[in-house]
């Protein structure tokens, strides 16, 4: 077996595993905390992040999906 096909197979597997990890569902509290930390680091003040059921989003700005896609995180400036 030559090294090119082996390297290609290893690279493809690594890419697929990385995408799977990135797409893994997060609990709402964990994702909410991560987003809040990033906003705080940028100096954003006066906001509210709320986890809501998918059918209760309404006109709110959606900034993430959590709990396996069953809920959305919404963002509101106060």
UniProtKB/TrEMBL annotation:
Pfam family, one: DUF1161
Entry annotated with the keyword Signal: yes
Signal peptide boundaries: 1-23
Keywords from the named record: Signal
Source species, domain of life: Bacteria
Protein name as annotated: DUF1161 domain-containing protein
The organism of origin for this protein: Roseateles asaccharophilus
């Amino acid at each position: 077996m030559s090294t090119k096909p082996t390297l290609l197979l290893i690279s493809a597997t690594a890419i697929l595993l990385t995408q799977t990890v990135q797409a893994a569902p997060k609990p709402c509290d964990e994702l909410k905390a991560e987003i809040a930390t990033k906003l705080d680091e940028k100096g954003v003040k006066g906001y509210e992040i709320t986890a809501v059921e998918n059918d209760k989003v309404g006109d709110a700005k959606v900034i993430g999906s959590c709990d396996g896609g069953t809920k959305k995180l919404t963002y509101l400036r106060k």
